Fold this sequence. Notes:
Layout: H1 2-52, H2 56-61, H3 67-83, H4 85-98, H5 102-121, E1 126-127, E2 130-132, E3 137-139, E4 148-156, H6 161-165, E5 172-176, E6 179-180, H7 187-195, E7 202-209, E8 211-218, E9 220-221, H8 238-258
Antiparallel strand pairs: 1-9, 2-4, 3-4, 4-5, 5-6, 5-7, 7-8
Helix pairs in contact: 3-4, 3-5, 4-5, 5-8
Amino acid sequence: MLQSIFIKKFDNLIGHQLRSFRDFRLKWNHISRFSFRLIIFCFSGALASDAESLPENLLLGLGEPRFADREQAQSKLLDWGRSQPVISMPELLKHSRTAADPEVRARCNEVLFELIKDQYLTEGTGFIGIAMGNSAVQVAVPGDAKPRYGIHVSSVNEGGPGQKAGLKPNDIIVGLDREVWHKPILIETFTRKITSIKPNQKVKLQILRGNLLEIEVQLTRRPIALMGIPNLGHQLNLEKQQKAEVEAHFQQWLAKQKTK
């Protein structure tokens, strides 16, 4: 009888200890997970804080006595800005206004301008920079049993993406990427295809110039002055127009920041 009572009490004691140990483990695991998450949160916050700050060494480098050192610091600052433009733009704007050294202010402003320019030139619609004939022409293309229709290039915009890629007046465009035309294609249709592609994207043009050639063109942003005018690219000084548009956009961007 005494033995059975002792065994029962011993079992109850062991069970109580096991439950206490299990409760302790559960609480410890909960505390450990919480602590781990807290550490990760604090560490991530520290990293984010560092990432959001303009690198101090580059900022100081902008005011170095040697011109070469200032140029190098500005180049590295631009690389940093391009790697995280959303974060860097407000930082650069702040230092372009508040830095004690006028050289630092000016160089921060120049880097900011390049970032805004990058952003602007990747928006909008694609542009080749050519003037085209009024209608498609039918031509025989080597290697194609059927006649094709193509776009006659009447002139090429100086300094435009078409000229840089090697397009010349009197070239016949007989293919765009993997598309070729065995039926007449409207000039407006070709223009819409190009403008549907974002600036900085590349397209492959099949060109008939005696032989069949393939030319890769990196599109730029279509100038505002040519919106709705598909066939007059040759009438603009593209580089001058682009520079004016970027400068105007930058000034508009700065004006918007003052109202925030």
